[in-house]
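Help needed: design a sequence for this.
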């Protein structure tokens, strides 16, 4: 059980004064929550001017906090809840002013995962002199390292995205070529099927005989016989052939 995998967290808290009549502290504040080793959690809050605050918690103190909040489950469940609360948009820096002076008497960082959930409250101690300078230096270096890590991850993601775009473009071009080839093959196959069908009709004897022996074809081939068979003999010619005409020959005369 420890804080080996705790990633640094940066954020800007909302300012809140216990006495609304108190003047707001100057500037904006930035907090930094990190784990310098596996057994400690450090919190720094600063305006980068004259107000720098700090809190340190050991693993044992964090366990006591979990018991006080009544958060059940495993240690990792509690750390997940702590991280989610610090990363939420409802992190506040609460100041208590000193009634006998114009300075701030105390400060605490308050975080809550969501409304109705347990509220984490961590009291802060003000740093001065070299301790404040060291805290600012650590915060600045931590912020820069986080920026470099994000930038590195962004560059890698952009490179992967670029490579993926090239692969997609190449696959798209390949698919377009395949579709074009399939379309051309389909057209050629269709043309070949049509030609084969026409050649089959011409070379089939039964089809040719059927066409040649059809009544229309026979009429076209023998128009004369058709006309003769259907021609009607005139009436005056039919009358002449009804009886026989007797003609006397020379032999009949002598007899």
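Sure. Designed sequence:
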């Amino acid at each position: 059980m420890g804080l080996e995998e705790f990633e640094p967290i940066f954020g800007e808290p909302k300012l809140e004064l216990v006495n609304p009549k108190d003047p707001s502290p100057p500037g904006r504040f930035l907090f930094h929550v990190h784990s310098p080793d596996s057994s400690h959690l450090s919190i720094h809050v600063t305006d980068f001017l004259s107000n720098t605050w700090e809190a340190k918690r050991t693993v044992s103190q964090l366990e006591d906090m979990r018991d006080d909040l009544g958060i059940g489950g495993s240690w990792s469940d509690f750390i997940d809840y702590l991280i989610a609360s610090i990363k939420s948009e409802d992190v506040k820096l609460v100041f208590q002013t000193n009634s006998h002076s114009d300075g701030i008497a105390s400060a605490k960082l308050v975080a809550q995962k969501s409304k109705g959930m347990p509220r984490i409250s961590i009291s802060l101690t003000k740093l001065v002199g070299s301790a404040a300078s060291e805290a600012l230096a650590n915060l600045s270096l931590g912020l820069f390292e986080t920026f470099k890590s994000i930038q590195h991850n962004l560059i890698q993601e952009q490179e992967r995205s670029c490579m993926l775009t090239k692969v997609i473009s190449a696959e798209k071009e390949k698919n377009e070529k395949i579709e074009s080839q399939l379309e051309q093959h389909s057209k050629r196959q269709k043309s070949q099927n049509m030609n084969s069908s026409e050649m089959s009709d011409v070379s089939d004897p039964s089809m040719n005989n059927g066409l040649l022996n059809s009544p229309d074809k026979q009429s076209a081939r023998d128009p004369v016989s058709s006309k003769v068979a259907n021609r009607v003999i005139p009436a005056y010619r039919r009358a002449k052939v009804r009886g026989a005409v007797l003609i006397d020959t020379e032999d009949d005369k002598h007899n």
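The two ends are 166 Å apart (CA to CA).
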